[in-house]
Amino acid sequence: DEGVGTMMPGETPSAPAGTAAAGEPCANCGVLQQNINEYVAALIALKQKMIDGDICAFGNFFFNCTSDFREISALRCQMEKMLQKILPLEKCQEELGSLKAELEEKKVCL
Q: Which stretches does UniProt call biased (Low complexity) (predicted)?
C-alpha cells in the first residue's frame, strides 16, 4: 500500500462512490447555490426596505420642519402684531406718568 493517498503528476483523483461525475454539480452545490440566491434576494429586499424607510423618515422630517416653520412664522406674525399694539400703549403710559407727576406738582403748589 505504498501509493495510497499519493498521486503522480498528471493524475486526477477518482471521485468517491456516491458523488457526481466530473463536470456535474453535486446535490450539495445545488442546495448551496439556492441558499446563496435566497440570501442575496433577502439582502436586496432588506436594502430596499432601508432605502424606503430612509425616504419615509426624510419625508416626515421635511414635513415636520415645514410645519414647524409655518408655526414659527405664525407666532412671529402674532408677536409683531402684539408689539404694534403694545408700543402705543407704552407711549400712553409714559404720557400718563408725566401728566400724573405734573398734577402732583400743581396739587402741592395749591
A: 9-22
